[in-house]
Please model this.
Amino acid sequence: MTRTATRSTRSTRTRLFRCLVPLLAVALAGACAGKSPSDDGGGDDAGGSGGNELSADFPAAADGDISSFTVGIAAGQGRYDPLLATTSVIVINSYDCLLTWNDKGELVPGLAESWEQTSDTTYVYRLREGLTFWDGSPVTVDDVIFSLKRNVDPAVASPYGVYYTAFQDVTATGPNEITVTLSRPDPYWRYASAIATTVIQQEFAVENAANLGTPGVIPIGTGPYRPSEYSPATGATLVRNEHYWGEQPAIEELVFSVVPDPESRRLALESGAIDATWDVPLEQARLWDQIPNVRIGYGPGGNTKIFSFDVTAPPFDDVHLRRAIAYAIDREGIANSVFNGHAEPARGVVPPEIFEIFFDEQQLADWYDSVPAYEFDLDKAKEELAQSAYPDGGLTIELPFQASQTVDQDILATVQQNLRELNIELIYQSMPDTQYFAELYRHEDLGMQLFYFGPTYPDPFTYTFYLMAESQAVPNAFNFANFHSDASEELMAIQETDPDLQARVEAGAELVRMAADDAAYVGITFLPFPVALNREYTIDGDFSIWTFANWASRIRIAES
Model:
């Protein structure tokens, strides 16, 4: 929380869901750090730009080091191992991947200075010259190969192995080059390069395999910070890595303090006991926005609050009933009253920023305008209901909601009131998280559900496959609407296998439009990615969920 003015700055997949699987709570942006979100990259991914309604504007950065900076976090991360940590907010600062993201979600160089896809199943990565670990020892090709293979090692049991379903082998193909070979084409391997390729020192990891990741036996990495103290229960202290390959961050000592209670975190911010937190409860945004010495940023987060309807069973097998309910949801009112204006009324289930690296601004606007909006209109709701098998309503809908998602109660209260205008009674009840997920994943009597969904990488596939594929309309999977058809499966096949990136993206866009027209899924609000930051500091450059991968390196002193 103190600083010294001594330096200058420059601006600059299967089942991993932040929304549905708490295992990797903040890992959707990848448990990897990188040099800078504004770095230009090689490789074959390029995109246009588009606008977002959600934004997080921070003041310009000033010169100077920050001697100590404290972050309040809701829970510890378990093992200090990039493949086994239960949340990535701490560990993300200590390890790098081959690639990383810029603020738009485009892939840019990380430990690999360049990369290329030389065939449908071959990816070549060329490592930066002179890479070293925290201890100053050189990063070798063997370290990188070992690190990637840990993801498929049964002894490690890494959850990141889900990104390696098509992985066949990784070999050295030059003094500073590795080649990854896949067993089949996998259009999503490119994203694994920025999520599941953290590099650690092989020798230390092998010698300490039994206890790796426990306090005192932390894998040696390449990231901008190395841990000096660590407790799975109470937090950690990290210090700048003097051997870091990228620009040195402004923060010299990075402290993490576990503060489980949201109100205690808010008070700690107000008193200055902590300088920042990512754990901002959106349902309490109005209260948090009033902290006098704190700036709350609400950047694009890619998350959507969604209602699903089981289209295969009464009463929701009636499209007119589904559309009637869709028209009876006051999205704008929910965005303003429940989220204090820090959410955007949803159109479909995929936020536009997920498409913005693939479409230019006009293409993005045209696509988004093509998605049925279901603006709040009780007259239209009654017209649709009149065309349904339930023209007079007379329905009772029972809906459980996840106890930890306290904001859902406020959303459901609003919807309940509006549905009464249709003579439909919505009865909702809180359910403990463990029971809620157990019931949901049984995939029986799904009816109407409320959940939120977030991306693992900036590709519409991360939404459409899990929510709309026929293969996911089974127990322990995520197509809670049981939505699929011959037409949607044809689009799904394009999205999963077509080597043409643009063809895949356009298929995904059409799937979103198709599901919205069918009202199988009704988006409620697009949710932001919040951060609370003492006004003494700022975040350098644009801020979004994708820049989380580099967040600590972006903290700077705010310009007066």
Q: What stands out?
A: Residues 171 and 179 are 5 Å apart (CA to CA).
